[in-house]
Amino acid sequence: LPGPAVPAMPGWRCPRPALPILRWLPRYSRAWLPLDVLAGLAVGLTAVPQALAYAELAGLPLQYGLYSSFMGCFVYCFLGTAKDVTLGPTAIMSLLVSSYAFHEPVYAVLLAFLSGCIQLAMGLLHLGFLLDFISCPVIKGFTSAASITISFNQIKNILGLQGIPRQFFLQVYEMLRRIGETRAGDAVLGLTCLATLAGLRAMKSRLPHAAPAEPLAVRISYLIVWISATARNALVVLFAGLVAYSFQVMGSQPFRLTGSIPQGLPALRPPPFSLAAPNGTVPFQSMVQDMGVGLAVVPLMGLLETMAIAKAFASQNGYRIDPDQELLALGVANVLGSFVSSYPITGSFGRTAVNAQSGVCTPAGGLVTGALVLLSLAYLTSLFYYIPKAALAAVIISAVVPMFDAGIFRTLWRVKRLDLVPLCGTFLLCFWEVQYGIVAGVLLSGILLLYSIARPPIKVSEGAVLLVQPGSSLHFPAVEHLRDAVCSRALAASPPRCVILDCGHVSSIDYTVVVGLAELLQELRRHGLSLAFCGLKDPVLQVLLSADLEGFQHFPSWEEAARCRGAELGGSRAEPFSSTAESTGLIQ
């Protein structure tokens, strides 16, 4: 296990075990304990206020944020393969839950259960490769749009406005129309909290490490500043709560408060498979139909977020993860979480960063975080009554603003402009509905991927013979493109030229390609021309030999093929390309 002051242990790189905790627990060092406890406390102080804020974002009673924040910590300690990752509610997942759970806890809990089942199945069937079909531009477009959407969704709480619709464009219109109804108390407090959070974040990013040679007072000062910046969410919420309580004691209340939160731990019970409604019971099948595409979007985005975070921190800190085990861990966490009224959870980048920066050595730090959340549920919920909604909104906005990546547009413009199509498609449609943006982005990426397969780069060099060089493997959509490239150039030349097909970059072909090549051989032969192959890799050569193509000829290199073609044609055509290759014979 890698960790600060602890060298990486080879055991962390073992093959996927049934229970990853058995990989590091027998080797657990007493020196790791204080670091794990400190990291767990730091993450817990971040997790509790964020849990309340994200439940508000998901449109659920605030206690559901806390219900969703402890099970993932415990499960991941036993099943996770990354020492830094923390599972729990996130801004992205809360936004998706608000779209598919209809602000109804029963739907949210069932969505967690079904998402966990899907994630478990993907882990058991080793289907994690499906996530590779969601390209980076799609992810960047989604997260950037989500950053703006979530921020605007919380501005209503900063301004103290009520009755604002959920749809983004209607939100913007209504907030601009009702800007005159802004509550001064909420606005001042919300902006103050935002400024404080931004200042503490900047302070932490610029805080140098205290050298061991520094005086004790200096090192203690560094520690105080680091703790304050790390636990900034908790400090800001605590400060705002004290201000609100002071006004309450004085007999006035200029803020909209969180209100009562039920005290105590959630009941342990199976997730609900029906919903009691005023006009009858909504059965399981109807609930599934209501959630619709959310049953695909929520588990996939949860997996994507977790895997991206796990890979990033594993690379940064020098250890390896097991992707399939990560899928299993997230699936089990969501399934078990649904038994304690959790809504879908995933890996949290912000809390994972706090965990890593705090020097966590093993996943055991999650036990401390989970215990802190449980203690908050058991003893502190009565104090949450006084937390202003503007303060929670500031916590959310502070968390999601860094997700907006303005530089990606400029980068793609320089690197590959075609990738701007799925990026912009996802970004713009997410403002309409999240699911439309994600689906559109995946479809656009798929179309671009298929286009590159159907139209591989083909380099044509003209000489006494025509040298054709496909730049990638050939699959059935590319057959006509290849035939057109060969025939249009070979037959249009004066006089018509024989063709050498250099397959040095072709690692695989399919049956349709074999049929197309057979037809190409016949067509060129009808015009008195020949087609020779060179540079065939063994798998491709075996396929073509097995097909027993009439007139099939293969040479080790294009120089050899050009020399032989030139010899057949005679005269100056014997050396159509500059070559120093020696003859090694003809393979037919």
Automatic annotation (TrEMBL):
GO terms for cellular component: apical plasma membrane; basolateral plasma membrane; lysosomal membrane. It is found in: Apical cell membrane; Basolateral cell membrane; Lysosome membrane. Keywords: Anion exchange, Cell membrane, Ion transport, Lysosome, Membrane, Transmembrane, Transmembrane helix, Transport. It catalyses: hydrogencarbonate(in) + chloride(out) = hydrogencarbonate(out) + chloride(in); oxalate(in) + chloride(out) = oxalate(out) + chloride(in); sulfate(in) + H(+)(in) = sulfate(out) + H(+)(out). InterPro entries: SLC26A/SulP_dom, SLC26A/SulP_fam, STAS_dom, STAS_dom_sf. Its main location: membrane. One of its GO terms (molecular function) is monoatomic anion transmembrane transporter activity. Residues 465-549 form the STAS domain. It is a multi-pass membrane protein. GO terms for biological process: inorganic anion transport; inorganic ion transmembrane transport. The chain crosses the membrane at residues 31-55, 61-79, 109-131, 223-247, 293-315, 327-346, 367-387, 393-413, 420-451. It holds the Pfam family Sulfate_transp. Sodium-independent anion exchanger mediating bicarbonate, chloride, sulfate and oxalate transport. Exhibits sodium-independent sulfate anion transporter activity that may cooperate with SLC26A2 to mediate DIDS-sensitive sulfate uptake into high endothelial venules endothelial cells (HEVEC). In the kidney, mediates chloride-bicarbonate exchange, facilitating V-ATPase-mediated acid secretion. May function as a chloride channel, playing an important role in moderating chloride homeostasis and neuronal activity in the cerebellum. Belongs to the SLC26A/SulP transporter (TC 2.A.53) family. This is Sodium-independent sulfate anion transporter. It comes from Nicator chloris.
